[in-house]
Amino acid sequence: MASTAADITDIANLLKRERFYRDTAQWDLCRSAFHPHAPTTYINVAWYEGDVEEFLRQSMEMHKGKINIIHSSFDPVHIRVCGNRAISEAFCLVTSSVTLDGIDYELASHMRLATRLEKSPDLGQWHMLSLEALYVRDRLVTSFPRPIDALPLLMTDEIQAYPKSYRHLALVMLSRGLRPRPGLPHEDNQESIRRVLDRNRAYLDGVEEEPAKH
């Protein structure tokens, strides 16, 4: 029991540090949180699906030299350990600022982050194998009161086609030249949520399953 409690503490600290390192552009430290062998890693978020190396390369390209995207209210409360394998789930609030048509907005995206981890047999250190976002809801609000003559944002058919759980996120991403995928796991499609969680539980039980590509 003592060993499991220590593992849970180590894992929670690792997951929190990884998000902080990513937000603050400490790329080497962020990379060290993941498994050393990149092909065994898998990340699936709104703007990216693939391994950690390419994820970090694209993250570096998008970073504008200052902190904008912030992962807050992130507390990995559900961590399960079985030998050298572990899984985690946590709610997370991701915020960022964006200017659209001359108006400053704040985007807030609520999601669950699901993770698989492995403990190295030689060093006894935990590393992340996966990071998958499950979208709950989002909102886009003005940072200041809107000018009286400001036009409302246009919700085009393209934006309306995205699930409500991350529709505002899609609007902001499209304005930044990114194209989110419409088939991401989200709360209005419970089967998509179950697939991710069932796959992680199978991993904990020693069953290997390939993530479904979106």
- End-to-end CA span: 39 Å
Q: Report the total helices.
A: 6
Average pLDDT metric: 92
Please compute the radius of gyration using only Cα atoms: 18 Å
Main sheet characteristics: 8 strands, mixed
Class by alpha and beta content: alpha+beta
What is the H-and-E element order?
A: HHEEHEEEEEEHHH
> Which spans have pLDDT < 50 for at least 5 consecutive residues?
none
Global shape? globular
Classify the helix fraction into a percent range.
25-40%
Can you count the beta strands? 8
* Beta-strand percent range: 25-35%
Provide the descriptors you would attach to this structure in a database record.
single chain, 214 residues, alpha+beta, eight-stranded mixed sheet, 6 helices, 30% strand
Question: Nutshell version of this structure?
Answer:
With 214 residues, the protein is α+β, with helices and mostly antiparallel strands.
Describe this structure in words.
Strand 1 (42-45) and strand 2 (48-50) form a beta hairpin. The protein is globular and about 65 Å long. Strands 1, 2, 3, 4, 5, 6, 7 and 8 form an 8-stranded mixed beta sheet that branches. It is built from 6 helices and 8 strands. It is an alpha+beta fold and 214 residues long. The longest helix is centred in the N-terminal third of the chain and has 22 residues, at 2-23. The protein is 31% helix and 30% strand.
